Structure formats: C-alpha cells, structure tokens
Fold:
Amino acid sequence: MLSQQDILEGRNLSVTCKATPGNPSLTTFYWTKVDIQGFRQNGATLHIPNIQRNSSGTYRCTAENSYSNGEKGTHNQSMVVNVLYPPVVNTLFQQDIIEGRDLSVNCTATPGNPSSTAFYWTKVDNSGFRQNGPTLQLLNIQRNSSRTYICIAENMYSNGNKGTDNQSMVVNVIYQPAIENRQLQIVNESETVILTRNISGNPVSNVSWFNKTELLKTETSVTTTSFFIERPTCSDTQNFTLVASNGVGSNATAVVELIVNCKPIPDKTNITLGVTFTTGIEFSIKIIAYPVPQYELVYENGTRNNQMLNNITRNAVNNFTVYYRQVVVDQSSFGLYYLTMRNLFGESTVTVNVIEQRRPETPRSIAVVCEITQARIQWISSFNGGDQQYFTVVILNFQDGTNISYRFHDKGENELHAAHISNLQPLVTYWFVVSAKNSYGSSPSEITRCKTVQEKASSKTGMVVGSVGGALVLITIVLILGIVHRRFTCICKIALENKDRNTTVAANKDKSNYSTIQEQQEHSERNMYDALTSTENANQYEDILKKDNNGYDEKLYEKLQSSADKDNEASSSKRRIPLKIKDLKDDKFVTQNTEEYANTSFME
Structure:
C-alpha cells in the first residue's frame, strides 16, 4: 500500500511500487498521474527530481502481467504527493516619513503549502527588535528609527519544519536641519580664521553665510560648512548669520560670533572745539577696540585737567563711546589736549584742541556744473568755529547783474553739501560764492564761474571747478556778502556800459524784478548784521557800480573790504556767546536745505 508523500519543494522524490506476483509471475510496473493523461513513467520507481509545487497531485502505480491468451492482468494503487513550500512575501517599498509622525506598513504574502501563514517584523542591526503581525507600527517616529526593516512570513510543515520568506524595507526618517552650537571665536588681527559648523538634517542641507543682509557664501548638500577670513581686522568683529535649509520644516538659523583682538581705533584723530566761558566743554569720540580700552586725557605738557568729567559706554562688543564734559570754563581750559587710548594690542592718540568760539572756516572744494537752464553747486563744510553755522550761496548773473541768495543748513564738519539751481538762462555766465556764517562772522569762498550751454546742445554740460572770477565781479559778490541790508536785501546791478548811474541802492531795490520769497528757516540771523554800517558801505558800493569793467577802483575795494572785516571783528569781540536769532522775513533771501532744488529767475 502506498502512503501519502509530503515533500519539500525542490527536493527529489523517489517512490518504489511493489506488488505480489500473479500468474504468470512476470510483472511490469508504470506510473500515471490522475489529472494529467499524458503523464506515464515506466518502472516500479516514481522518480521526480527537484520537485515543484505543480507536481502535487495523485499518482497511480499500475502492476500487470500478460496471460497466454494475450490478455493482461492488472492492479493499481494510488498515492498522493503533497509538495510543501513557503509563502511568498510581496514587494515592499521605501518609506519616507517626517520625524514625529506615525508609521504603519502592512506586509502581505502569497500563501504557501500549507496556507496558514504567520508574519513578524525584524530590524537590521538590532537583534532585539521584533514586532509580530503583518503590520509594522512605529508611533511618533524619530530619526534613530531610520533603518532597514524585514517582514518575514512563515508556515508550518507536517514534518515540523517551517517554510519562510521575507522582504526588506527601508524606513527613511526625514527631519529639518539643525546647526551645531559652538562658543564664540576670538582671534588676533591678521590670523587666518576658519569658522566651521556641522549641520544635521535629512536630507542634507544647503547653507548660506550672511553678514547682516549681505550674502557671503553658499554651499549645497553639505553636512559641514566653513567660512574663511584670511586677514581679519577689527571691523570683522561681528555676528555672522548661518542659514541651513533642506525643504523639511523651517530653516535653521545660527549666529556665528567672531571677535578680533585689536588696538583702539578712534573714529577721528583731531577734534577742534570752539567754546565760550559759559557754554562749557563737551565732546565724545567713538572707538573700535577689543578688549575694552583704557583712556586718559592730558594737556600738551602731560598734566591733567581735573575739572573734566568722563565716562565710557559700550555700544557693541568692540564699539565704545568716550564722553568728556566740563561745566565751568576758565582761561586754563583752553589749549591742546591728547586723548590716549590703549589696550593689550596697542594704543592710539586723538588731538583735542579747545579754542574760543570764532567765525567759521571757509567752505572748500567748491564745484559747479552748469547745464542749459540749471546748475548744481557743491562744497565741503569746514570747522564751524564752535558755533552753529549755515551756508549762503550767492548767484550772480554776469550778463545783467541780477543776483539772489540761498541759505542752507549745515550737515556737519567735512560733509558734502549740494544745491540745485533751476530756471537759469542759456548761454549766460553765472558767478557763485559759498559763504559760511555763524554768530561771529562769515567766511566766503572764492568765486566760481560757470556758463550755461546752448539750449539745442542738450547733451553738453559745462563745468568749471575753482575758477576765480574777474575783479569787478569779485568786488560785487564780496559786497553782496559783506554789506547786507538790515532787511537782508541786496540787489545788485552791474554796470557793463560806460554810463553814469545816479540811482541809489535803495532805488535799485525798489526796481527789483524779483518776486518776494518768504524766509523758510526756523531761525534767522538778522542781528549779526545790525552792527554793520549800511549807509556808508552802500555809498562805497554804489561808487564801485559806477566803474567800468576796465577801470574799477582797487583801493576802494580794499578799503571797503577792510572796513567790513573790522566791523565783523568788532562785532565778534563783543559776542562770545552766540546771538539769539530773531524770526525774519526777507524779500531776497531764500532758505534751503542741502540737496534741495532752488527755482529762480534772473530777470532784467
């Protein structure tokens, strides 16, 4: 009797069929398969090498002998062949999941033989991890859960063995970047600096280095980033900003702090202070240094002024402001001082010159650009004499002698000032003078000449820098600046023809072709002109106006100039304290801010 054959797929099957001989005793054997008609294997032994699951079925062994009459005697026995095989796990795909979320992956399989299938999950490089069941669940997944996981399916054979199959699956936990935190870096000047930070994140990050809003460097797909400074200076002390991004969540931002050791560097090396006995002394200076500097203010001879109070404030890690203040001023307070600042890396000295207030210094670097109907004049301010100053720009039409003045506020010492004048006449020479004024007097610049261009030649621009005008125009503009009417009115008409003029300055004023322009500045300075003797000077001025271009009176000009200077000096000596300025309205004096546009006409 043949018994069921349970055999593992892939093995060799060999079953021998036996029979009790009949009569005649010669017996032949062959094997057939019930469900396949074409299957026949002669012989007593059924042999199936490397048996596969499709070979499962009922096989029949037939034994026969041949009778003498030609007929055959037959007998058969059936036998079940049961091929055992494991389940087949279906393909699994990589799982990309954001950190903090829940992961759930279901594993499926094609059943084996027997069909009852059990599932469980393992983790590569972690022998202790096992999760039973077809579903892998990882709640609130973290970056350390990124690994390769294996789903295993198995069934139990009748012989006690198990059939197994598995599939691997990569779990990729992605998370936003993070920048390594390090302490600030302190270096000496001229030492090469390498600022380095490690960047974590999945996927790898793109990084950018910034100095405030200025982009310094970018790198793509990096885990470590560096920024080089070959020869750092004191100004390189700052907080750089490092930004990392990888498309997951928000960008990571870190401050990378660099401090450069350096000696004190003041924002200015010379300070001139114009003071009075009642205004006191007060000044400050900004210093870049690290570490914090020590400082000392002494007279030129090395002694101290014990009345001078001081303190220092820190504006930034390497930026300081030193303040000095003295309430009571006496004669010994004037003079030359040296402010010395030092630290471990060197020292610097600032010269401080304390003087009595005086008239301002002359504006410098006068430049004029003329176009068709407009001009731009610019100048650099000088020391204000220790008193608040303003600027007057006088413009003279050389063709008809008309003029007008504009007032501009002071932006500070050594600052560039500019004025735009419009509504000029084409192909006319204009003369420009910039005068600095305070309570102690005025200082006019040299005359600068500029000629407007033809109206058709719109692209042509004439520019004359620092050109000194002729003697007659020089006298006229000096008089405009020095002999100012009490109403701040000065209307000049230059006589270019050889005709006598019996009209007075007042008459010229009454016949002025200018429209009235209101004073726009909050404070005016009428009183500083009250000390001038207008009548006498006006007469001298009228005499000059009567002169021909080729025959002006030089001695008269020098006398007039000397007289004006004396008036200014006399006025200044009596006024150590700046005059309080009255409000005033003037028909010919226009107040403007620097870089503003003035619109005027030079009419006959």
Q: What stands out?
A: The helical segments are 471-482, 505-510, 527-530, 534-545, 554-573.
